[in-house]
Amino acid sequence: SAVISQKPSRDICQRGTSLTIQCQVDSQVTMMFWYRQQPGQSLTLIATANQGSEATYESGFVIDKFPISRPNLTFSTLTVSNMSPEDSSIYLCSVQGEGYTFGSGTRLTVV
Amino acid sequence: GDSVTQMEGPVTLSEEACLTINCTYTATGYPSLFWYVQYPGEGLQLLLKATKADDKGSNKGFEATYRKETTSFHLEKGSVQVSDSAVYFCALSLTGTASKLTFGTGTRLQVTL
To answer: Which residues of B touch A100 (CB under 8 A)?
Structure first.
């Protein structure tokens, strides 16, 4: 199955700033998925990123807040914009394979 | 819409005890079912999966059987170890195309000596 390198692994950011999270996959994949895991909660899908087209966002998530880039079949970024403490979460990317493979996650704390 | 319901945690067991974590689902089609495990401070790892009714997924002593008649996919292990302490997530995806995972709320398992 695919191996995903996700970075940064953690960050502490000031409110009002933005953070870009990167995921690099060791093989070409059609779709990449971005999830959020709020403290003590389950995972919620933010958006699905398909190479060459705009990402598809789930209800409650908007492109202005979570812009996504997908420049090629092995790479994607998620930006968390104009952050507030409510954005403190773990953010994970995922690709479909034999099961679904996940990156190691980015633990974001907004202060 | 599609959903997954998992038993509430935390579950606390003594080492070598039997484990069952209940999971039921609602889906419009014929989903694939998964169990993921999240060890403390780590990302999600696929534990096992089943893609059709009556399939049994197994890994590391854990098992789960896809029961279409009861829409369930309960996770079981005959003898847990301290190293099994983690959060376990039941999830589904619809088959056929690249599809998102829908997760249950997660069940925290704590195994003590």
So the answer is: 34, 46, 93, 101
